[in-house]
Design goal:
The chain contains five helices and twelve strands. It is an alpha+beta fold. The strands form two sheets. The chain has a seven-stranded mixed β-sheet. Strand 8 and strand 9 form a beta hairpin. The longest helix is centred in the first third of the chain and has 18 residues. It is globular, with a radius of gyration of 17 Å. It starts with a strand and ends in a 5-residue tail after the last strand. The mean pLDDT is about 95. The structure holds biotin (BTN). Biotin binds next to helix 1, strand 3, strand 6 and strand 7.
């Protein structure tokens, strides 16, 4: 895969879109982003010292119901990268990677469909390595804070690209998910409630139990542990 290294850009997800016309898979990396984007229209802190990159992947015969596998593969690639540097990660469904009880990485996926097939995906990953997170109020953590060894942005970026180039499985994804069986907080739009996280279905939906009934969630936000409403 072609890898493009930039000093600064607005967002590597947006930069990756510039390569759509070439029809070729590419990974766009930046040392910092001036308008890093998170999920749900949020911004993503992108100061120098983090890994910010986006994988643009074209598909020829993948149906839209496999979209979860794109998300799963991204999260597993980050987890393997963290482990390579001696840090034990967990996945907060669907694809936040956490370590030491805090957010280590965010993933923003933009899929394009053609009918019921995936045409391409842009998988944007922001992984905290040596960046200053002090403005985030203690919710995030960097690899360098947790790793027993010195970590450089370049080494983490190269490892992440190498891991993303391999295959992953649902079993591997599930091995990083540690909250099943626990009570969680769920936010679905303006509705908040507590439920027991039961399992992750093969299509990626999270099954929760509430008042003795099971529901499959496709796009809720969850809170694990302290802070459950
Ligand atoms: C989130 O946790 O809300 C997702 C954050 C995703 C951030 C990455 S950094 C690289 C890519 N470019 C962006 O603008 N966003 C993603």
């Amino acid at each position: 895969m072609k890898v493009i290294l930039l000093g600064e850009c607005t967002s590597t997800n947006d930069e990756a879109k510039e390569y759509l016309r070439n029809g070729e898979d590419v990974c766009v990396c930046a040392e910092r982003q001036t308008a890093g984007r998170g999920t749900k229209g949020r911004s993503f802190s992108s100061l120098a010292g983090g890994v910010y990159l986006s994988f643009l992947t074209f598909y020829s015969d993948v149906t839209a119901d496999k979209a979860f596998q794109v998300m799963m593969h991204a999260a597993v690639s980050v987890c393997r990268t963290a482990e390579h540097f001696g840090v034990r990660p967990t996945i907060k469904w669907p694809n936040d990677v956490r370590a030491g009880g805090k957010k280590l990485c965010g993933i923003l996926i933009e899929n394009a469909l053609s009918g019921d097939h995936l045409q391409y995906s842009i998988v944007g990953i922001g992984l905290n390595v040596n960046n200053d997170l002090s403005s985030l109020g203690g919710i995030a953590v960097s690899l360098s804070e947790l790793s027993p060894m010195p970590v450089s942005v370049g080494a983490v970026r190269d490892e992440l690209i190498a891991q993303y180039s391999k295959q992953s499985t649902m079993e591997e994804y599930l091995s990083y998910v540690s909250f099943l069986g626990e009570e969680i907080g769920v936010t679905e739009g303006s509705v908040q409630y507590r439920a027991i996280a039961r399992r992750i279905l093969p299509d990626g939906r999270l099954e929760v139990e509430r008042d003795g009934k099971c529901y499959a969630l496709s796009s809720a936000e969850i809170v694990i542990g302290e802070g459950v409403k």
